Amino acid sequence: MKKYPKKERQTRLVQAIEENPFITDEQLAEKFQVSVQTVRLDRVALAIPELRERIKHVASENYADAVRSLPIEEVIGEIIDIELNKGAISIFEVGPEHVFQRNKIARGHHLFAQANSLATAIIPNDLALTTQATVRFIHSVKEGERVIAKAKVRDQRDSRSITIVDVNSYVGDEVVLKGKFEMYHTTEKSKRTEVK
Fold first, then answer.
1. Contact at 8 Å (CB) between 90 and 102?
2. CB contact at 8 A, 117 and 181
């Protein structure tokens, strides 16, 4: 891949970020064969926020109104895609506050919280509570890694007030957590029963 002059590189950088707001500075540096520092300087010159701010912006712009079962700011990680009662994806950046200081490995409750809050957010009701969760931690996650959680609602034949949500969390292509969450929620039928 050829190196671009500064002006052309900056134009292409804007296009790359518009196409994928979740592209990292490291990926951009590799794409344009420049240093990460050069990418950061280009972003500052173009007034493009860092990845974390871009994720927050996309999430608050697109999903704040969609999520009904809990306030968007209570979701652990940033929701980047959600289709209620079907599937959702969130990103969680593991920072120094999320790890054991001794070995820099992420504390399990943060990974669980990301998966559990995503399973809650996917439920299209005002009330959604976890009644049971089965979680397996497959691999340890280290400080600085990005965990992508993907939730999928299982097909349901009846209109019970329990929905099963499967959540798999990844670092790159590696599965780090597998979870099955049984979510209680109020359906229109159960609301009518409660009123009587």
1. no
2. no
Query: What are the pLDDT digits (tens) for 16-71?
Result: 888 877 788 888 999 899 999 999 899 888 888 887 777 666 655 555 555 555 66
Give the pLDDT confidence of 102-141 residue by residue, as tens digits. 999 999 999 999 999 999 988 888 788 899 999 999 999 9
The three-state (H, E, C) secondary structure of the chain, written as one string:
CCCCCHHHHHHHHHHHHHHCCCCCHHHHHHHHCCCHHHHHHHHHHCCCCCHHHHHHHHHHHHHCCCCCCCCHHHCCCEEEEEECCCEEEEEEECCHHHECCCCCEECHHHHHHHHHHHHHHCCCCCCEEEEEEEEEECCCCECCCEEEEEEEECCCCCCCCEEEEEEEEEECCEEEEEEEEEEEECCHHHHHHHHC
CA-based nearest residue to 187, from 120, 119, 133, 127: 127
Full-model pTM: 0.66
- Could you give all domains of the chain from N- to C-terminal order, each with its CATH number? 6-60 (1.10.10.10), 71-185 (3.10.129.10)
